[in-house]
Each structure stands twice: as structure tokens, then as C-alpha cells.
Amino acid sequence: MRFIKPYVLLVIAGIFLLLGSFFCAAGNSNETRHSHEFNENQPFSFSLAQDNVVQLNETSCNTFEFSILCFDLANLHCLTSERQRLRHVLYVYFSFFSERLNRCTDVVAVTPWLAPIVWEGTFDAVLIDNIYKPMNLTVATTVFAVGKYVRFLQDFLETAEKHFMVGFHVRYYVFTDRPHDVPSVNLSQGRHLSVIQVPGSNRWQEISARRMEIIQTTIERQIRGEADYIFCLDVDSKFHAHWGSESLGRLVAVIHPGYYEQTRDRFPYERRPASTAYIPMDEGDYYYGGAMIGGFVEDVYTLAKVCRTRFEEDAGNSIEAAWQEESHLNRYLLDNKPSKVLSPEYLWQDFKAKTKEVKVIRFSGVIKNYADVRPNV
Ligand code: UD2
């Protein structure tokens, strides 16, 4: 030490001081950059209040979808112990800025009453599954196969096993006058099938229309105690791609593929004021397909009961609505707005060429020879 001059010591100390301040500055700038990125990814803050209502401090296209998701979750009366987990999941969901919703361009993804319209690219299937799967839900699925329509059951069930509510408990209720012709299809674990015998008819209009009555009475007798949600589907159809928990909601309807590009004066609503299904020319939201209704069991129960009563009232006045129960469904949904609307991806028709908005066909009616399968023409 005695050979080191004091000025050398001063130079070494200076170097250490310089290096120290350099590392400090670098550390701070890293922190600043990191917190900037963090803010960019979290442009919204929210909190779950006691009633699971989410409070947001900013709005965007995504807010619609997000608030409706929360609305449905609130309806499920999530347990308080679940709230912390939901807070996390909802945040992650909210951070998911889907390209289609964010741009709000080629399709409208929300109704004027702020219900989501479910299109491919507007949701994250894995995230939504992560919310609903822990709830241990059972989904009832009703399907009518009366007369020759029993021939459609095999494809319907086999494709449902591949694509429909996979990973959920599903209870199929098959209504038929030919129980012995119901095919045996291998069902995955947690999925069951009940066959319920119903009378045949020599009028297809009656078979189609009586579905509401039978759904109503079967919910009263059986389904109410066995399921949380219900979907009522046409049997002459096949699943082609994922149909999952993104479709769950309090009251769910599907936009008919034949009318999603039409203005409402072109919708085939019942136009005769004498019918209880009557919709004037200047009213109506969408033309909903009768091949799918869904929602909470109790909400679908009320829908079926009201439509059945109105159908019978019309029959008493010797009037049958233009498209039987589909006309009554459309009148009901005009007064009782669905909480979720499925795009025509969830109800396509095989004879119809795919359009550019429809990225995925999930469920589609097969081409059938009406004269061959119906009891009357
Ligand atoms: C339309 C609707 C259908 C219903 C009907 C009203 C779409 C795509 N389809 O279909 O949901 O509203 O118009 O009249 O929106 N069925 C039998 N046996 C029969 C006849 C019918 O089981 O002999 C059942 C079967 O489940 C069938 C459903 O009723 O899927 C509807 O009948 P449809 O498919 O013949 O009616 P369609 O194709 O005109």
C-alpha cells in the first residue's frame, strides 16, 4: 500500500463511483420501460363488487363482450370463494383482445341490447372453458326423431360426441315414436342418453310444432332436476366443428343462416295480425332459426310454455303460424331478448355455399328429400 500514491487511490474510487451511477441509471430505465409495457397491457382496471358486478374505468369494443360474460357469471351466483379465481380469469379474458372484436369490422359482434353475437374470432374457447368447466355443469340436449327422421340420429349423435360441449356432462333426450330404431352410439364418459317415446303424426307441421309442448312437459317431469343448461336442436343436422361453453347463456338463440344478410322486412315472420305470432313489418331484431334454442333450463321452460300456449290459442282460432313454432319463437324473442345470440356458424344449411363472414361451420342441416322423410308434403 505504501507504494500506491494517493492520486491513484482517488482515480480508482472515481472509477467505482462512475460504474455505480451507470448501473443505477440502467436499472431505473429498465424499470421505467417495464412499467410502461405493463400499463399498455392493462388499459382497463376493474373490480368485482359484492354482487360480481364488474366496474370498468374505460370502454372499448371488448367491453361489451366482457360485461356480458360477467352478467352471465353473475347469474350463475358464483360462490364468494370463487371470486378471487374469477377475478384472475376475467382479467386474463379481458386482456385477450380478439382481432375481430378489436377491429369491429366485418361482422357485428354485439346486439343493440348489448348481448354478444358469437362469431369465430370473438372469443377464446380455452379461457371460457376454464371458467365454466369447474362449475360442474350438466347440459341437456333435446332432439326429436319422429317417423323417418330417426335415420338422422346416428350422424347427429356421433358428430355431437366429437364436437358438442366436449368435456361437459351432457344428457341427450331423444324423443321418438320408434324407440327400437334408436342407434347405439358410444358416448364419452359423463354423457348419457334417454329415449322418450312420443306419438307419431301424419302431419310434419304438427310434429314440429308439438316440440314446444313436449319440451315443456319433459322439463317439468325430468330435465329440471338433471341439468343446468339446455339446448333443443333439429335432428337432421351434423356437427362439424367446436361448439362449446362460449354458447352458454341465460337465453340463447341463433340467427337463421338464410336471413342474416337480409333486412327485417324480408324476414318470414308471421304477418297476419290474427295470429299470436304476428310481427308488424317495422318490428323485429333478427330472424332466429327454430332449429336451436338454448339457455338456463328455467328460461327455456318459460319460452316453451308461452310458445305452446300461443300455438294452442291460434289452433283454437283455426290459424297456424307461417313457420309453426319458429314463428312463435321469433315473436317470443322479440319481447324477451336473448342474452346471447349465436351467429349462423351455429346453424348452417348444407345446400348453402359458405360465405366470407362464416369462417367455421359448426352445425349444419343436412340436405334432405322432404318428400321422402316427411309424413306429408
Ligand atoms: C325449419 C326449421 C325447423 C323448424 C321448421 C318449422 C331451421 C334450419 N329449421 O326446418 O327448426 O322451425 O322449419 O316448420 O331453422 N321432425 C321429426 N319428424 C318429422 C318432421 C320433423 O322428427 O317428420 C323434427 C326433427 O327433429 C326435425 C325438426 O322436427 O329436425 C324440424 O323439422 P324439419 O327439419 O322438417 O323442418 P325444416 O327443415 O323445414
TrEMBL record:
**One function term, GO molecular function aspect:** hexosyltransferase activity
Q: Where does an alpha-L-fucosyl-(1->2)-beta-D-galactosyl derivative bind?
A: H256, E326
> What are its GO biological-process terms?
carbohydrate metabolic process
Highest taxon, organism lineage: Eukaryota
Quote the record's binding site residues for UDP-N-acetyl-alpha-D-galactosamine: F144, A145, V146, Y149, D234, V235, D236
Binding, Mn(2+): D234, D236
Query: What keywords appear on the UniProt entry?
Result: Glycosyltransferase, Manganese, Membrane, Metal-binding, Signal-anchor, Transferase, Transmembrane, Transmembrane helix
- State the free-text cofactor note: Binds 1 Mn(2+) ion per subunit.
InterPro entries, alphabetized: Glyco_trans_6, Nucleotide-diphossugar_trans
**Short name of any one Pfam family annotated for the protein:** Glyco_transf_6
Q: Which SUPFAM superfamilies does the entry mention?
A: Nucleotide-diphospho-sugar transferases
Q: How does it sit in the membrane?
A: Single-pass type II membrane protein
Q: PANTHER family per the record?
A: GLOBOSIDE ALPHA-1,3-N-ACETYLGALACTOSAMINYLTRANSFERASE 1 (PTHR10462:SF49), GLYCOSYLTRANSFERASE-RELATED (PTHR10462)
Its family remark reads: Belongs to the glycosyltransferase 6 family.
Listed name of the protein: Globoside alpha-1,3-N-acetylgalactosaminyltransferase 1
Species of origin: Oncorhynchus mykiss
Gene field: LOC110538060
